[in-house]
Predict the structure.
Amino acid sequence: MRIALAQLNYIVGDFELNTHKITEAIAQAKQNDAELIIFSELSVCGNMPHDLLTRPYFINKCLESINTIATHCNGIAAIVGSPSCNPNPTGKALYNSAFFLKNGKIDSIHNKSLLATYDILNEHRYFEPSDSLQAVTLNGKTIAITIGEDIWDTLQADGRKLYSKPPMQELVTQTPELIVNIAAIPFVQGKIDQRVSVYKNNVKQYGIPLISVNQVGGNTNIIFDGRSLAINSNGTVAKMLNIFEEDICYVDSNDLEANATSISIEKEDTIALIHDALVLGIKDYFCKMGFTKATLGLSGGIDSAVTIALAQKALGSENIRVLLLPSQYSSEHGVSEAVELADNLNIQYDIISINSVFNSFRSSLANIFEGQPENLTEENIQARTRGVMLMALSNKFGHLVLNTSNKSEAAVGYGTLYGDMCGALAVLGDVYKTQVFELARYINRSEEIIPTNTITKPPSAELRPDQKDSDSLPDYEILDQILYYYLEENKSKEEIVKMGFNAQQVSKIIRLVKISEHKRYQTAPVLRISSKAFGIGRLLPLVAKT
Amino acid sequence: MRIALAQLNYIVGDFELNTHKITEAIAQAKQNDAELIIFSELSVCGNMPHDLLTRPYFINKCLESINTIATHCNGIAAIVGSPSCNPNPTGKALYNSAFFLKNGKIDSIHNKSLLATYDILNEHRYFEPSDSLQAVTLNGKTIAITIGEDIWDTLQADGRKLYSKPPMQELVTQTPELIVNIAAIPFVQGKIDQRVSVYKNNVKQYGIPLISVNQVGGNTNIIFDGRSLAINSNGTVAKMLNIFEEDICYVDSNDLEANATSISIEKEDTIALIHDALVLGIKDYFCKMGFTKATLGLSGGIDSAVTIALAQKALGSENIRVLLLPSQYSSEHGVSEAVELADNLNIQYDIISINSVFNSFRSSLANIFEGQPENLTEENIQARTRGVMLMALSNKFGHLVLNTSNKSEAAVGYGTLYGDMCGALAVLGDVYKTQVFELARYINRSEEIIPTNTITKPPSAELRPDQKDSDSLPDYEILDQILYYYLEENKSKEEIVKMGFNAQQVSKIIRLVKISEHKRYQTAPVLRISSKAFGIGRLLPLVAKT
């Protein structure tokens, strides 16, 4: 049976666009003699809709779209993701479903059993788990339809399994010849091996081939990476669709046999993938919001340099206009490197000194600050003056401000709320400082775009004379490792110290993370590239003693 | 059996404090000859701990606390809320439990069955539902122990029941003589009748009396109101504990009979309760964070007037210092009313004109803004200049900035990000503008604290000459109703129009709500007093077409 895998980029709630994409793909698949076409999880409404799922009109639109799509399913069957209504009077009002469309109508509805409710996923907030499982038959072939987490019944880091009843255990008794999984899996650096293993393990456990179709594209903070795939019944990979772009491929299910041809999955080039993920994240944030233009403050530092290079790839030089906002503490090399970088990228820039505004703030506040020593306050005023300038450009000309804070800074609160922490989208908010350096070198891989000195000089916020990041923070190599274990591996202070890190340093860093929760609470959405990004996937009480 | 109801105010993660409060209450209850003392849901760690529950050391601390508390339970039994570990190798690692402590040790553990996962509640994120139910026996009396939602199997607005298996249906077969419910129910205006009904309905359905102990106190955005209660077996209210404060009361379970004495629940004075809730919310936010001092920008408008009056109640005049930040567009009456208000409250204030900084921004930006007409940009620069001034005071002297935006403004995006939307805590962020006026009149109920003209003059942001809120927004009476139906009742545009509102106005308002999601994403925690506040209980994708 010839099957089309339709890996598409949806806009949440844009039913017209999503339905159009789906029906176009169906038409193309019919022309290519496919008997079945498969779309990703919640494809009619786009993933992740969050609380839009609680609005009745939103669900009606989903079901209208499904009915429209069904009318296109003559001579071809389709599996399409959509919420569906729970007909039972108890439990959550919705299921997360796969609609099996055939002969111009809805043939059957298959509901998700295992509802992911951790990190950025909130499925129990909206959905009731499936209470019945039924394989479908198409042209004599029996197919087990599963949704996302349904086949992700994997061992957790703590040695537990999240679910006691994986639906495949029941579905396999109906002797399916193929597992279909419709999914919406966000990009996480370095995890493709794990993902492929999950699929392979299902194939090995149940002895039948598997096809998984994943969503692609950025939606606010989440970047879906695509890489839909087909696994032969011997557990080898028959096909993998493109990463970070729409792709439609055809697979003959009869070819997914033990002696089938297979491809090898290349080892991930982590930095290259992070680069491409962030470019897609920026691009889709803008185009799906209906914005085209971006701005940021170019300081001569590495964070703004990498951010502008990524933004230029995503939006084009002509859509970016930046400000250089030097103060009396800014180095000459910083300004000249910023100019060089803007020139290298062919991006319009203006230089506006913040001294006049800064001095005006100081004079205005002189009375109430009388007798007080200079401190962080004056540094913050500079950062906030820059924030106001960038927002003014944004307001006047419609450029969205890109936030340039990296994950290491954001973690320890090394940044000024409403100052350098302002912006519509935090491009590097999930990228550790050491990875920002790697990104810079990657961006420069074939020519010098970011001035070498920007990469090699010691990082500084340049908010007071001769300031260096290393004055108040440990080396980023150390900091980033400690942060990784604390934030992503959920290790305790004691466990991290046992790994060989300096106890005082670990205590200080963890303390800094804790006391800056309130800052991160008020920042822009962060493009997520790790298993634990700041934002909606990390929910901590601001008022707590821990 | 004499039972103590211990309604206490916990700090999340402050195990020392929480354990101390609990053991002190046990000692007091023993002195008062109680045989059983009951504490609220997750009392050892405080509610709501959010992702702290995913940290192993946090769970260890909970269990250590339980063991410590158990050693105090000689001659008295206790029911204490705490997470407990799921011994099964599948499912979430934790239960939300009630520990029954007796004879100096843990006698039994009772797990929550119905896990609330909607609005601000995320219980499925952390907990596995109970898989066994067992009543306990104490001094010959059988008691059914339930936790929060377990007895809230109520009909939803959409006619559905959220749960198919309320645990009391099983527990009642064990012929308990009393239902105990340990809870952590946040304050929501106007809902006390509904809450009491839920308890009464359980009593009527199962024919046995009920005691419920609720947490009290503010934790970040959530204000737990207390009002723990005991219901007689005939469904009348035997006792209700104080609202918004710690309270320990004693009830004899033998008195909770059909012919028992009962009290009547007074009709809520909604505005008085909102006032007290917000005062508690401010007070606990500060004291639990270890801060004492607050600042804000006093404009002569009603929002900042009400906010400062609430803050003064919560923190005392001596802990508040405010700035009056007039511009060329500020009215003279605004400044004089602000001064009058600060004097009435005996609060230190300084007047700093923002003209100099504003002009400095304009000169600095003159080149890049050449030929552009003045617009919102210049208004935003004024608001952001004020934000920088307030944050500077905060940074220099340690005053937390209170945000003064009301819910109506926040809903339609009528506010400047990083300007008047700055601050550590949004005091009025869940209070509609019409309610802000009611609060002002309530604050003035016995003497004029807020100048009458502040209340009676037409609201204006004073960011351009002769600006009025009503220039760009419908009357607040209309606006607030439309917002209420849209935000809180989840009505569609069509449904709201059918109620008799102007279709164009409804469309405009809903559009404004949608296009300002990105602003609310970056604002301070909002003290929650309604069933749908902005913040973690309302999760919408920023990138969406809806």
